[in-house]
Amino acid sequence: MSLDHVADALQAHAAPISRRAVDAMYADPFWDARFGERGRRRADEDGDFHVGYLAEALRLGSTAHFANYARWLRSVLVARGMCTRHLSEQLRCVADAVDALGALPSPEDARVVRAYVDAARDGLRYPEGSLGSRLQDAEPRAAAAAEEALAARFYGASDLPPRDRLRADAADLLSYLADAAALERPDLFAEHAEWLAGFFADQRRPDGYLAALREAVARQPEVERSEVRDLLRGTATAR
Amino acid sequence: MTSPASAPPAIAELTRRYLDAALVGNRREALRLVIEEGIERGVAVPELYLHVIQPAQFEVGRRWQANEISVAQEHVATAVSQLVVSHLYHHIDRATPNGRLVLVACAQGELHELGARLAADFLEMSGFNVVFLGANVPAGSLVRMVQQMKPDLVIISAATTLCFPGLRDMVKALREAQADLPVAIGGSAFTWAEQCAVEGVVPGGGSAGELVDVARRLTGLT
Question: What is the rounded distance in angstroms from the CA atom of residue A136 to the CA atom of residue B25?
Answer without folding.
Answer: 41
